[in-house]
Amino acid sequence: MKPARSDPEHLPRSLWWVLVGITLVWGFNWPAMKVTIAEVQPFTFRTFCLAAGSGLLFAYLRATGQPLGIPRSEWRRLALNAFFTITCWNVLVVFGLAQIPSGRAAILAYTMPAWAIPLSVWVLGERITARKLLGLALGMAAIALLLGEEFARLQGAPVGALLVLGAAWTWAIGTVLQKRFPVRAPVAAYTAWLMFAGGIPIYLAALAFEDPGHLADVGMHAWLGLAYNVFLAFGWAHWAWIKLATSVSVTVFSLSMLMVPVVGVFGGALLLGERPGLAEFGALALVLGSLATVIAPQRSR
pTM (2 decimals)? Predict the structure, then answer.
């Protein structure tokens, strides 16, 4: 992938619309996934998301005449990135989400910056400035605030919570690896192949362990949730995620994602009947403060 020319230490204005879009799409996707996996078996669900989502990107690239190929020398890097960011993330999230509420799952999944930022310092040599530390502290305070009143409930479903935390860890590793071992290919083509390749173990698991006949009994709401995942959460948002992750530093990208669990909590309230309280509103204020540390450009000396 060609490196972006923008300053990697803050989010360029040209990418603000990408951040807003991915925040809304991925935030509302948590209740959508919860509705869908209540009726669609997990490996089958992720097979639809990854195969159809990558298929949409391939079709778009072909229709617009954009290149589809990945140089042979880049396939090892692509496979390594796909394993952590696609295979591990999707399997761990879908099985964890089946055991805990969507809002709490979103909160746990987006502890990713707590793992990604130290990894980026260790592996990539990124600098930790006072501004970055402030952003991380505000973002993690928001997550801690949301987790505080749910701690007793999380103890009631430790396996589900641990699975989602594992997903956050693998996402952090994959994010750092994409910066450490970038794939030299156009962003859209790389995204399509990343989803398709990362889904191969999931496709095989669906064929081996699940019966596709259960889809005959799936209701309309589950199908709508599945369509939302295919077209928006995978078809568009994964392109947006790669665009952000490869345009700015790991710290800036990680902090930019902290708004997603807040939207997830409010999305659960809107769509699933959960009721946000003072903790949710306090977390929203903290996350907005964290976002300000990465969106606003630093003043030149």
Answer: 0.80
